[in-house]
Amino acid sequence: EGARFLLEHRKRLDKAHRETGVAPEYIVAIIGVETFYGRITGKHRVLDALATLAFDYPPRQDFFRSELAHFMQLTREEDVDPLTALGSYAGAMGAGQFMPSSYRAYAVDGSNDSRRNLFADWDDVIASVANYFKKHGWVADGPVLSDAVLQPDAPIVADPGNLKLNETIAGLKSKGVDFDNAKQPETTPVLLIPAEQENGPSYRVGFKNFEVITRYNRSVRYAMAVHDLATTIAERADRAGGATLDKVAAR
Questions:
Q1: Hey, how many other C-beta atoms are within 10 angstroms of the C-beta on 96?
Q2: What is the DSSP code string of 19-50?
Q3: C-beta atoms surrounding 121 within 10 Å
Q4: Active-site annotation holds for 19
Q5: Fewer CB near the terminus (10 Å): N or C of the chain?
Q6: pTM above threshold 0.85
Q7: How far apart, in whole angstroms, are the C-alpha atoms of residue 229 and residue 80?
Q8: What is the signed CA dihedral for 55, 59, 62, 68, rounded to 10 degrees?
């Protein structure tokens, strides 16, 4: 389905790639992970969701009160009906599931119609996801992840809660971590990631673009899922070549 989406929206994705440097398959993977390519965008009234969390969920009430205020401003700026706009149980909206503050800060008008519509305009959705990545530091044509092998008794621990580029290529290799450095300088910042498999421990090394994906959702597992989906989508679409979209879906 992701390959179908990529081929259907190839022109939009290529335009976003030219303007931001973000690879099309990662834009598609985000939309796939978040809403199954725009099919499941949420059935809760955004106003109700945000108001409930803002006033009846003390652990994060400050955050959601801020988001509620952003939503009210957004409804004026983008002519969104506050009584009918639907989203997730947390107030995220559209195919890319932008929270109101992210909508206001990172959404762009990809269709040049003087409106940023993340509910129904694919030009705006695709351009906005790409812009979100660009604004958080996406490196055009840069690596995302490399599989890694730890030597026995390597003096390092992979912390599943760490999202910071707290090592360098040279530093990890000196600690007994073997991986493909993707032709990057040895001073390149990276992080070691635990990637458990059914048959035991596994590891990966993330680069700047991996850290950028975690800005969308603060989880290394989320970011790995996006990366793995993106690479599979790209491979499937490349194999399809000039095939019809129905044949792509069947492969």
A1: 26
A2: HH---HHHHHHHHHHHHTTTT----EEHHHHH
A3: 19
A4: no
A5: C
A6: yes
A7: 32
A8: -50
Among residues 34, 78, 167, 211, the one annotated as catalytic is: 34
> Closest Cα to residue 3, out of 238, 207, 242, 189?
238
Nearest to 78 by CA among 35, 113, 38, 29: 113
Instruction: Extract the tokens encoding 175.
Output: 């600690």
Q: Please state the φ and ψ torsions of residue 147, each to the nearest 5 degrees.
A: -70, 145
Tens of pLDDT, residue by residue over 119-169, are: 999 999 999 999 999 999 999 999 999 999 999 888 998 999 999 999 999
User: Beta partners for 168?
Assistant: 189
- Strands of the sheet containing 145-150, edge to edge, are 167-168, 189-194, 203-206, 145-150, 177-179
70 with 101: CB under 8 angstroms? Answer: yes
Cβ atoms of 51 and 57 closer than 8 Å = no
Cβ–Cβ < 8 Å for 166, 140: no
* Residue that has been written with the tokens 């969390």 in this structure: 53
Burial of 101 (0-12, 13-18, 19+ CB in 10 A): middle
Helices (H) and strands (E) counted in the chain, each on its own, are: 11, 7
> What are the pLDDT digits (tens) for 67-110?
999 999 999 999 999 999 999 999 999 999 999 999 999 999 99
Question: Between the CA of residue 240 and those of 4, 100, 138, 162, what are the distances in Å?
Answer: 10, 37, 28, 38
Q: Which two tokens stand for residue 193?
A: 């990631």
Q: Where are the alpha helices (DSSP H) in 78-179?
A: 100-106, 122-135, 169-174
